[in-house]
Design goal:
By secondary structure, the chain is of the alpha/beta class. It is about 40% helix and about 20% strand. About 45% of the residues are buried.
């Protein structure tokens, strides 16, 4: 609009109308008529019409914007909802546990608040909130007490605060398994939470989704993808006959958002969300395989009865299995839902299943946020040693997209029978040099008896291969200088060792807790590494023969947890130890030690012959002034002095692959293989991968730092010091059980260790 122009219409036309009006008035007055001037007509230009409509639309949009508090926002569904709601222009407050990813994967526009249900939701999270989207709830088949704490009491606490603040929108993410006939702890707790909601008087929507799937590295769907992708056949529990009604996580999030918008006009809604036509679980899994790999898989149908028995025994023995008895109960009690009526009520349609499945499998899963998969050719790894540990390595290598097995070597050709029966195609060799020449691998994993580790490592390094050598590498003290020199001689080739527990994925979280002083000053530490025999003693094996193994339980079993201790707390200043034999004739299969640090002591128990059916878990407890840090094989937890326990990390939080040796490995094999693959790729690109400095100082990121030869020499030197201290003590089992090794007299941990020691007979 030019200078001096009228705000609308044409300036000249407006002036002319004004003059005509004045003349008309004059004529009417002369005739003595009444002044009946016609109303002025104002014409709007199209530009200002658009501006006006935009302004009205903006006002309406602002009135429709909601501020939503989302619980479980770090989870698979919760994080997807945060993204969908944020993209739609709504203000999102994400409630996450302090270490449940920290909200790092959420959109920048989302405000992250740390807290924990049921009673630790900060008041600042509620400021100006229009509605609550309640996605939090245990999904791993916890017992009823744990499920009730999150699902029932957490829901009750949120509703009470909604009523107090006048919040009129409450959307609850329930489950298809939530009904009056639920048998699992998960289903029962969800149904109980629904009852609490119905009685609260807050306008609400209860959503029962079917099987939720979508892109991402977390959640049940990601674990299902991992299993389908890696196993040679499709394992179908109960024949895969269970009915499922899938729903994409983004579609579900849009439904949740629509429900929040419809409240409080609709005081209550209960909706079933999923495909209107149920499909069988096997068809869902095959659709996943076709979308990701372009082909169906052979099926292995597994009756539920035997699996239920195995799962029950596994849980009694504290073994982490891919399914729980709670999962199996859920499979047996799936009820098809009427979802068409629910979708019609809110006037929504789900996107086609095939389209959303193809979208879901485009995003790769990751094992650890610090070690995401990188594109490029997978590392070709030669497996040397076809025994039990070699088989575990082989099966884990088979799962990883970062590695491929170039070949398998063992002097005993009979050992290959097991591999062939499990689908390994080889090639198989009885001569190492022939295998290296024929396969031209990038690296080798040496999983043979301890006495052969160093010589085989040297042969592989001389051939230009990076190595991952099972521990112990130096099975005698006099071999330590040669171990240290080997890494220097063949640098920059990767020289890694198999102290896999020192690379457990949960150790990064444990290190962060200690580094931040969250338990206050350390007062003591307890390391327990016990393996039971069931009904009978273990047969004589290589680790029970000193010439083959180099020693007993301290070097061949406890070594893993000594490595964990050194990584988290550093090297002790002094130590005392006792070791004795229970069943082993040549080596000691039971030991106890006290390690002295600056300001505190650590107590260690180790035995591979403890009697009993239930295998005690291996763990490290660090006792501080304000709480204790618990590091087990499969999780890390923080226990406050007031009794509040915060589960910081479980290995189910990341895709560590199926665990083929559930008695002790956890995600350690997955992490050491990923670290090894990363180092082989770096070496192939002419780079030097990061390794530990061998100083045994506290480490910031244990999970993503391989144990190289220099650090292994430090670990094994500490183990030899313990063995020497035990030899000096020279006690028998009876004397050892009578000794007082308490480090915090009167503590429950010392009492627990004393009781365990009594079983080491």
């Amino acid at each position: 609009m030019g200078r001096g122009s009228a705000p609308w219409g044409n300036a000249n036309a407006s002036t002319q109308r004004h003059e005509d009006t004045k003349k008309s008035k004059g004529r009417k007055k002369k005739l003595g008529q009444k002044n009946t001037t016609a109303p002025t007509t104002i014409s709007f230009s199209p530009f200002w019409g658009v501006v006006f409509l935009f302004w009205v639309g903006w006002i309406c949009f602002q009135l429709s914007i909601m501020k939503l508090l989302v619980t479980g926002a770090a989870g698979f569904i919760g994080s997807t909802f945060c993204r969908v709601a944020s993209e739609a222009g709504h203000e999102v407050v994400a409630l996450v546990r302090a270490r449940a990813g920290g909200g790092g994967g959420l959109p920048q526009a989302v405000r992250v608040v740390t807290g924990r249900l049921p009673f630790d939701v900060p008041m600042r999270a509620w400021e100006g909130v229009d509605g609550v989207i309640h996605c939090a709830g245990g999904t791993r088949g916890e017992d009823w007490v744990e499920s009730e704490a999150v699902s029932v009491e957490g829901t009750r606490a949120l509703l009470a605060e909604c009523a107090r603040r006048g919040v009129q929108r409450f959307v609850y993410l329930s489950s298809q398994s939530a009904h009056e006939g639920a048998t699992s702890a998960y289903g029962k707790s969800r149904y109980a939470a629904e009852e609490v909601i119905r009685q609260a008087g807050v306008p609400h929507a209860i959503l029962r989704p079917g099987l939720v799937f979508g892109p991402g590295a977390a959640g049940l769907f990601a674990r299902m993808r991992a299993s389908v992708g890696r196993l040679p056949v499709l394992p179908l529990l109960g024949g895969g006959e269970a009915p499922v009604q899938p729903v994409d996580a983004a579609d579900l999030s849009r439904v949740m958002l629509r429900c929040a918008q419809m409240l409080p006009a609709h005081t209550s809604m209960e909706l079933n969300i999923g495909e209107p036509e149920a499909m069988k679980l096997r068809d869902f899994l095959q659709a996943m395989s076709v979308a990701e790999r372009g082909r169906r898989k052979s099926e292995l149908r597994i009756p539920l009865g035997p699996v239920k028995a195995v799962a029950a025994v596994g849980e009694a023995l504290h073994l982490p299995l891919p399914v729980t008895t709670d999962n199996l109960k859920g499979l047996e009690n799936v009820r098809p839902m009427d979802t068409a009526t629910s979708l019609a009520r809110i006037d929504m349609q789900l996107r086609p299943f095939g389209e959303t499945m193809r979208e879901a499998v485009r995003v790769p899963t990751t094992v650890n946020p610090n070690l995401a998969s990188t594109p490029g050719r997978p590392a070709r790894v030669l497996l040397v040693g076809a025994g039990k540990i070699g088989l575990v390595h082989g099966l884990n290598l088979f799962q990883r997209s970062e590695t491929v097995t170039a070949g398998i070597v063992d002097r005993n050709a009979k050992a290959f029978g097991m591999y062939k029966s499990m689908g390994f195609a080889g090639p198989f060799y009885t001569d190492l040099d022939e295998a290296i020449a024929a396969t031209r691998p990038d690296g080798a994993i040496v999983a043979t008896p301890a006495a052969t580790h160093l010589p085989l490592a040297r042969r592989c390094l001389q051939a230009g291969l990076g190595v991952l050598v099972e521990k112990p590498v130096a099975f005698r003290r006099d071999l330590l200088p040669g171990l240290r020199a080997l890494q220097t001689e063949f640098a920059p080739l990767p020289c890694h060792t198999g102290y896999m527990a020192a690379q457990f994925p949960q150790l990064d979280t444990a290190a962060a807790v200690l580094r931040a002083g969250e338990i206050g000053a350390v007062r003591g530490a307890y390391v327990c590494c016990l393996q039971s025999h069931i009904m009978a003693a273990k047969p004589v094996r290589w680790e029970m023969q000193r010439e083959q193994s180099g020693g007993g339980v301290l070097i061949n079993f406890a070594g893993h947890w000594v490595a964990v201790l050194l990584r988290l707390l550093g090297r002790p200043a002094a130590m005392e130890a006792a070791a004795w034999s229970i069943h082993s004739a040549e080596v000691e299969d039971a030991a106890e030690a006290r390690l002295h640090y600056d300001g505190f002591d650590a107590r260690l128990l180790a035995c591979w012959s403890i009697a009993g059916y239930a295998r005690p878990r291996n763990f490290l407890v660090v006792q501080g002034e304000t709480g204790r840090l618990l590091v087990e094989q499969y999780h890390t937890a923080l226990v406050r002095n007031n009794g509040l326990t915060e589960m910081l990390y479980t290995q189910q939080d990341f895709d560590t692959g199926y665990n083929f040796a559930p008695d002790y490995t956890g995600g350690g094999f997955a992490m050491e293989h990923l670290n090894f693959a990363a180092a082989l790729r770096a070496a192939g690109a002419g780079e030097v991968a990061t390794v530990a400095d061998g100083s045994s100082e506290r480490m910031a990121n244990p999970a993503t730092t391989p144990v190289d030869f220099a650090e292994a020499a430090d670990i094994e030197q500490c183990i030899f010091d313990l063995m020497d201290a035990a030899a000096v003590a020279g006690v028998d089992a009876a004397t050892a059980r009578g000794a007082d090794m308490s480090i915090l007299p009167g503590s429950d941990m010392d009492a627990q260790f004393d009781a365990l020691r009594e079983r080491m007979r």
